[in-house]
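HUMAN: You are asked to prepare a plain-text protein record giving the amino acid sequence and the backbone structure tokens, both parts labelled.

ASSISTANT:
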Amino acid sequence: MHTDTFTGETNAEKLKVKQAREAESVGKRVLLQGWVRTRRDSKGGFSFIDLSDGSSLKGVQVIAENKLPNYESEILKCGIGSSVEVIGTIVASPAKGQLTEVKAESIKILGYSDPDKYPLQKKETSMEYLRTIAHLRTRTMTFGAVFRIRNEICRSIHNFFQSRGFMYVQTPIITSSDCEGAGQMFRVTTLDLANIPWKEGADNKREIDFEQDFFGRATSLTVSGQLEGEIFATSFGSVYTFGPTFRAENSNTTRHLAEFWMIEPEVAFCDLEGDMDLAEDFLKSIFQDVLANCADDMAFLNEKVDNTIIETLKGIVESNFERLTYTEAVEILRNSGEKFDFPVEWGIDLQTEHERYLTERKFKKPVILTDYPRGIKAFYMKLNPDGKTVRAMDVLVPKIGEIIGGSQREDDAETLESRMKECGLNPDEYWWYLDLRRYGTVPHAGFGLGLERCVQFVTGMSNIRDVIPFPRAPKSCDF
């Protein structure tokens, strides 16, 4: 007999509890408000209305008899997408697959929807088309399941950190700092683009006079809240940020967005080992919550989208993550006998195919890689004594590869300033960041998890644009 890992109950026990609760509800009068999924009319003089309010995968079957005063005039004109208010009584259902239904005493039509013009018909609809009607796609069963799971993941994230004494910090969306040093940022300006003010810059080159801009300097949308998060970590110990971030990366793929949400914890008095422990516990906690609290939605997506998602999440929750260095991983990959599309050599940034080989074929579980070459990582990562690698870590999971990236931060001011110059950054623009190393510096570490990447992994959806309410991507900014 199967026992649920997360509740300790067998499936039979949970079914009995559910049936008992439904049986106890028989005879109760209820008020229902929602949208019509389907309406079927019987020759016996009544209609079956499948009503959904979005709170769960399954709707409620409402029985509307022709005795209702507005049956002919209104109810029979109430098509898919219409909103209604129902007052009725819960009764035992003779139909298979459900214990109860609601016998309507009154049905009030709040908003009609023409069934012939309604964009969501009861048929297979492509994801591409649904993205063009993002204001309505949330009414489908697939997107209802996805966004309820997204909500559960967000709730789980806050619960995880709050239960461990982390402070939630709201970092700025508009910034003058480039955290990643990649330069792929969205400019924020109030300057008249048809009449840009210019001034003479270095080497007699013309440059924009940002002193006339709103903030008096060049500003952009943030790519990360990490640097500001470190300010709070070095005062409060353990903090986390959770907000929107923006990358002007012209990548029109199924894994990239221009606007997405990031979760970034920062912990003072913490080294890389502590950072890895936190990341492993964090992922397991999220996945366990989803499996326990979104069982119906996960079962639906497991059947309709990807029949491995439940098995994959359970495997991660029940495993101990493998840990090895980047150098060890490169040796494993080079000696694997596999013909990769991207040849493996020390110093390259590992590709998804390499990461998936490690998680799916070599170790068959999540892997945490550490100590990457300094040349492929950001300036703020702590330099190792060998001078060639930094205290970075990536958490890799089956099917997608990297899901979390993090590091121990460089806490030595001189080393950090040297790394900034090495990466082409002006230390004067990061004076406050360097101050954190000059006044009471401590070892500290953190990581980042992209919310959409996590939701995509959990739900099995093939395109990241289908796990965010309103996707922003190259040449696409609708709604």
